[in-house]
Amino acid sequence: MSAGERFPRAARLRSERDIRATFREGRRRSGPDLELFARVSAAGRPRVAIVVPKHGRTIVQRNRLRRRLREILRREWLPEAAREGASVDLVVRARPTAYDLDFGALRSGLLEALGEMTWSRGS
After folding, report:
1. % of the chain beyond a pLDDT of 90
2. CA 14, CA 29: separation in Å to the nearest integer?
């Protein structure tokens, strides 16, 4: 994987304070497999955090789900959000049913949930 294909460091929402604030203050979109929380980003660019609770699963299963979500966001949502000038912090939290989805179903569910949220400059 070349440097241009990696999940950009600037696109990572890493601060626990920012993640908690997004949970607390952000708009929420809840589906059967995923929960999304979004709020205006203080960084002025789109940033993402992925939360994959244990739900009784192994670390291998959690990491696989996290990698799949990250890849979908990296390839499909981040470029679009950057093009639109969306300044948003996004937290994606997996529900127990997300572990049972194949990549295609996970992708369509995540993109559908993202499509239902409104993105505009500064929101």
Report:
1. 72
2. 21
| Strand order across the beta sheet in which 47-51 lies | 27-30, 34-40, 88-94, 47-51
Place of tokens 């291998």: 60
Q: Amino acid identity of 44? A: G
Q: How many CA atoms lie within 13 A of 41 on its CB side?
A: 25
pTM: 0.89
Closest CA to 69 of 45, 86, 53: 53
* HSE toward the beta carbon, residue 39, CA cutoff 13 A: 14
pLDDT tens, position by position, 70-104: 999 999 999 998 888 889 999 999 999 999 999 99
Q: Phi-psi region for residue 55, left (φ > 0), alpha (ψ -120 to 50) or beta?
A: left
Beta strands in 11-85 (DSSP E): 27-30, 34-40, 47-51
